[in-house]
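User: These chains co-purify. Model them together.
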Amino acid sequence: MLSFNVQIKPGSPAYEQVVYAVQKALITGRLKPGDRFPSVRQLSQELRINPNTAHKIVAHLTAERLLQVEPGIGTVVQKLPAGSSQDKSVLLNKDLERLVVGAKRLSLGLSEVTRALEKHWEKIS
Amino acid sequence: MSQPAIYAEHLSKHFRSNEALKDMSFSVPTGSIYGLLGPNGAGKTTTIKILMNLLTANSGRAEVLGYPSHKLNWRGFRKIGYVSENQILPEEMSVTELLAYLKPFYPNWDAKLCGELLAQLDLPADRKLKNLSRGMKMKAALLSSLVFRPELLVLDEPFSGLDPVVREDFTRGLLGSVVDSNGTVFMSSQDVEEVERLCDWIGIMKPGHLLISEPLDQLLRRFRRIEITLASGETPKIDWGQDIVQAERSGTTVNLVHQQFAGAATLKELQERFPHASTTEDFPMTLREIYLAVARVRTT
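Assistant: Joint model of the two components:
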C-alpha cells in the first residue's frame, strides 16, 4: 500500500497526476518528513504504471527536493523546502490570473471565488 | 541511440488475396513498453508472428534484438519471452514440471525469481495445466517467460479474458520483472486503458496499416479536442486540411480533433479561421478518444 492517495485517470500524463498527489500528501501531512518513499519498482507495481514513468516521478520529486536518496535507507521524504521567489511569483501572477479569467468567463463573482478558496484552504491544512 | 529492440521496415504479408499487412515500418526502442492497438483483424498477431519467425513476410524485413527475424532461432529465443493469447502448453504437465522441463534451455534461468513469481502470481505449482483456468494458464505462460530474465518480452493480447484479480497479478509480475531486468516489452492489446497506463510507446493499426507509432507523451500532447462556439447564423465553409482529423458540427458548436496542437499558436490560427467565434476551448484527450478519432476517420 502506498502512503498517499492517487487515482490515475486517463487523458493526462500519469507522471503529472502522481507528482501532484505527492505534493498534496506532503502539504496535508499524509506524507511526513522522514517517511520512506516507495521505490521505482513499488511505485510501478502499486500504481500499475510504466516503470519509466515511475522513475521520472521520483527524479522530479528529488529535483524539487521533496525526496532525497539516503544511502543504505532508500528514498526518504524531506521537509517542504521554502519556495523560490520565482515559484511564488508564478503562482501569485500567472496561476491566479488564469483562475480569475476562468471565473469571469463563467460570470462568477469575487465573493463566490473567495469563499470557495477559503474552503479549500481550510480543507488542506 | 542504442539499437532498437525491434526494427521493422516495409513489412508486407498477404494470405492468398487478403493483404494482412501493407508496408509496415516501425521500431521499438530498447527499454520501452510498446503497446500495439487495433481492431480484430488489423494485423497485430500477423506482425507478432513475423517478428517471432512463425510467419515469413512477403516483402520487407525485421530485426529482433539484432537478429533478422526470419533467422531467429533458439539462440535468440534464450533472450526473448513470448506469450500469446492461444498459448499451446503441454497440458499433462504441472506448473513445476513445465518449469523443470524448460529450465535446461535457458542459461539465465533464475531459480530465486521463479520461487518469487510462483508466490506472487498465486499459481498452484502441482496442478496439471489442463486443470487450470484460462487466466491461470496465462500466468503460467508469463511465469515461464519471465524466469530467464528476457531482454525482450512479446505479449499477444495478454489481458483478453483475464478477470481483474488475475490481471492485477499479471501486470504486477510483468512490471516487477521489467524494472529488475530493464527489459523491453512489445504487446498487442485491445485494452486501451491498460495500454495507456503501462505503455510509453503506442502503435495504432487499422487493417493492414500502422497509422501511428510514437511515444505516448507526444501523442497525448499533440492530439486535442477543440470546441468552437460560432456566432449564430455563421456557416463557414472550411478546408480542414491535414491537421484536423475529425470535425462535427451541431447547431452553433463545432467539435474538432486537432492532431498537431501547439497551444496558443493553434488557437490563434483557429480564431483566424473562425473570426466570429465567441469561444474557442481546447480539451485534452484520452488515448481511447485518440484511438477512436484516428480509427474512424481514416478507415473508409
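The mean pLDDT of chain B is 90.
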